Amino acid sequence: MAKTTDSKEKTLAAAARLFCRQGYQGTALQDILAASGAPRGSLYFHFPGGKKQIAEGAVALGDKAVRAFIVQVAEASRSAESFVSNLAKGMAANLEASDFREGCPLATTALEIATDSETIGRATRDAFTAWEREIRQALIRFGINAKQAASAATAILSQLEGALLLARTYRNLDPMRCAEDAMRLLVRSDRGHSR
Known about the structure:
The protein is an all-alpha fold. The protein has a domain of 134 residues: Orthogonal Bundle (Tetracycline Repressor, domain 2). The protein has 9 helices and no strands. The longest helix is centred in the N-terminal third of the chain and has 26 residues. It starts with a helix and ends with a helix.
């Protein structure tokens, strides 16, 4: 039974990595099989809905990983400024470690197929909403009022997503550093208005 679960998890992890790197359309089922090392039969057993079902699972995996990262960074930070700074630095480190091949785990899939598949579209929307919620809750914990935290969370997520795209495209971390500076100013400003 453990082998079955391992095979399914390996398939989803491989698919998530490949979709992030080369997109949904650029990833064939054969690529996923090769990267996961799973036997072909297990692919059809675990994912009778095919590639779209695998994509749904990969989105869920990426969502879970990013939410855990945001929570971990929030718990390790002492202020809103250090929180957003640590978010940017952590994401920049992950991007650099992948040799600028892996930015946001959902962005490529969301852009490519979310409008063509209601289930994948819903999954990506739910994931981005959950990330905003985690950011908002952290900002509230650091003293920013709820209304300002909601706006700031959307701005922060947008800033990070855009910076990851630019940094990946430019193959350098300058956009991530600029985003970090902008986000620190944003939460510093929002904190000033939170009283």
